[in-house]
UniProtKB/TrEMBL annotation:
UniProtKB keywords: Signal
Signal peptide coordinates: 1-18
Protein name (Swiss-Prot/TrEMBL): START domain-containing protein
Source organism superkingdom: Bacteria
InterPro entries: START-like_dom_sf, START_dom_prot, START_lipid-bd_dom, START_lipid_transfer
Pfam families for the chain: START
Length: 221
């Protein structure tokens, strides 16, 4: 009987351990909220959300197309460049990060695709595509990345309302301790959302002629 009880207790603990991590609130500030959940390797997956009145999903994609202004609102980003347009909805993008001292600078090459999810939702999905471009010396290439921008656009009392939910998981690589990369990730998500909101409201961006359009992820790996 004792052995059976011990076996049941062991099975129960294994089941509990197999349950996926739940989102935990880190901070709410000025209309933005940031949650996180910890992966088994100790790295946080971050979810940041904000709702903005009077803007549309098209406004967001227009801002995103203005790669020259990216460092003005995406935290710790020094440079963004579209390397190749695979289709009207798909791009290969290079991003260089200006990491705070004493962290070594990172960069990443990513594949992105803009698709429709429902009548009110569109989504930009992003995944690492590290081998598309040769690595640079003294810069660590991020090779494990999954991210998305979910855009929910509705009309409320005649006014457009856009809810932006950004989810990102990235392994920074190198010798950077997880507690530090997690801290940077949380702060970056909050600062990025607040800066994003201001630029969308002020319309302080210059859209590129080739704004990413809705389509299919035909080149997705």
């Amino acid at each position: 009987m004792r052995q059976q009880m011990l076996l049941l207790a062991l099975l129960f603990s294994v089941q509990l351990g197999a349950q996926p991590a739940q989102w935990q609130l880190w901070k709410q500030y000025d209309g933005a909220s940031v949650h996180y959940k910890k992966h088994a390797n100790g790295i946080f997956e971050v979810q940041a959300e904000i709702t903005i009145e009077g803007v549309t999903a098209s406004d967001f994609m227009a801002l995103l197309s203005d790669t020259e202004s990216a460092p003005l609102w995406i935290e710790n980003v020094a440079n963004v460049q579209v390397l190749k347009r695979l289709s009207p909805s798909e791009n290969i993008v290079y991003t260089q990060f200006d990491s705070p001292w004493p962290v070594t600078d990172r960069d990443m090459v990513s594949y992105s695709c803009y698709r429709r999810v429902s009548d009110t939702q569109t989504e930009l999905t992003i995944a690492a595509f590290p081998d598309f471009l040769d690595k640079r010396e003294e810069v660590i290439r991020i090779t494990d990345l999954k991210a998305s921008w979910l855009l929910t656009e509705v009309r409320n009392q005649g006014l457009t309302q856009l809810t932006i939910r950004h989810v990102v998981y990235a392994d920074p690589g190198g010798a950077l301790p997880h507690w530090l990369s997690n801290k940077i990730g949380l702060k970056s998500a909050l600062h990025t959302l607040l800066a994003l909101k201001q630029r969308l409201l002020d319309k302080t961006f210059q859209p590129n002629e080739q704004i990413t359009q809705l389509g299919d992820c035909t080149h997705q790996q």
